């Protein structure tokens, strides 16, 4: 594995200052990556923490080892001078944050306030340079969660995955999702002036309770109808039964990370913890309103928005067959 070499104390202090206070986000992020790498965090763990491509993190480490602090800064780029000053760029970002759906509104206000004009294409390129993307806006629960608990959980998960890399435990993430014959409407290539019509039908709901590791290990339990504590218990019983044989041989515990849904915190469910512990399966709960810390959430989105073919929605039978086929292939050919 690739790691940053041990860092002298005076350099570590400089990196910490850079991580905490540098005005450029990319420099702060690179400094954090080098600090964690020198502490023994693998590139896979840094990818999970920073949500940055692994090859990019590897490149940061290479540049750090060959160039030191200078390697963490953006390299000079050719091109004409920017139309806007740094303060005017910040103004543009503020205007877009206020009304993210209409760049023309920001364009008009910016022209009025700076007496400078630029095309919407130029403004879009400028925003992309500062990590803005045109993407779907999502409902969020961030304002309801405790930020201290959230950050503490991120640090804990990084430590746990480090222990997993050392062979001291296994980690699985648990969650459930429902599938119906009402399709999730994705983006797709279509001829100008034509709309691609998606099949849709009213039908039953197929619920999937899933266990997933970051190495794409998995176990899925399907439920047609209501999901309650008994359904969750049945899923955990099946998972514990499968893991018990491996635990008897290796004595390596398996930690399952799950959210605080009522069916996971009911007395009926929690009373089963001792049984699962005997099979080597332990539970730990995420802070409330923290779905970002459960990677299996990304799996559900991938299935619904990318991997299910459009003809899966013709009927409940078709949808169920396609969902089960995708789940069966997960970790084999599906990426």
From TrEMBL:
GO MF entries: nucleic acid binding
One Pfam family per UniProt: DDE_3
InterPro entries: Homeodomain-like_sf, RNaseH_sf, Tc1-like_DDE_dom, Transpos_IS630-like
Domain Tc1-like transposase DDE: 171-319
SUPFAM superfamilies per the UniProt record, alphabetical: Homeodomain-like (SSF46689)
Protein name listed in UniProt: IS630 family transposase
Upper taxonomic lineage: Bacteria, Pseudomonadati, Pseudomonadota, Gammaproteobacteria, Thiotrichales
């Amino acid at each position: 594995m690739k790691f940053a070499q041990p860092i002298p104390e005076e350099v570590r202090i400089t990196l910490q200052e850079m991580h905490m206070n540098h005005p450029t986000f990319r420099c702060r992020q690179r400094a954090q990556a080098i600090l964690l790498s020198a502490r023994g965090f693998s590139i896979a763990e840094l990818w999970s923490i920073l949500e940055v491509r692994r090859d990019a993190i590897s490149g940061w480490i290479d540049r750090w080892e060959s160039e030191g602090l200078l390697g963490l800064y953006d390299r000079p780029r050719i091109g004409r001078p920017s139309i806007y000053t740094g303060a005017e760029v910040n103004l543009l970002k503020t205007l877009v944050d206020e009304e993210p759906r209409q760049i023309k509104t920001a364009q008009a206000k910016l022209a009025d306030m700076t007496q400078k004009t630029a095309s919407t294409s130029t403004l879009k390129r400028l925003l992309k340079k500062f990590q803005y993307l045109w993407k779907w806006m999502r409902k969020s629960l961030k304002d309801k969660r405790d930020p201290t608990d959230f950050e503490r959980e991120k640090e804990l998960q990084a430590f746990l995955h480090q222990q997993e890399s050392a062979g001291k435990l296994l980690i699985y993430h648990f969650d459930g999702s429902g599938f119906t014959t009402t399709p999730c409407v994705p983006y797709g290539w279509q001829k100008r002036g034509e709309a691609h019509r998606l099949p849709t039908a009213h039908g039953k709901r197929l619920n999937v309770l899933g266990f997933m590791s970051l190495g794409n290990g998995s176990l899925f339990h399907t439920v047609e109808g209501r999901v309650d504590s008994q359904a969750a218990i049945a899923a955990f019983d099946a998972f514990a039964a499968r893991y018990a044989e491996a635990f008897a041989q290796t004595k390596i515990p398996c930690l399952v990370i799950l959210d605080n849904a009522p069916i996971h915190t009911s007395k009926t469910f929690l009373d089963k913890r001792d049984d699962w512990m005997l099979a080597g399966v332990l539970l730990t709960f995420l802070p409330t309103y923290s779905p970002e810390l459960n990677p299996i959430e990304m799996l559900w989105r991938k299935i619904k928005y990318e991997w299910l073919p459009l003809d899966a929605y013709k009927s409940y039978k078709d949808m169920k067959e396609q969902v089960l086929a995708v789940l069966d292939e997960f970790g084999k050919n599906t990426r």
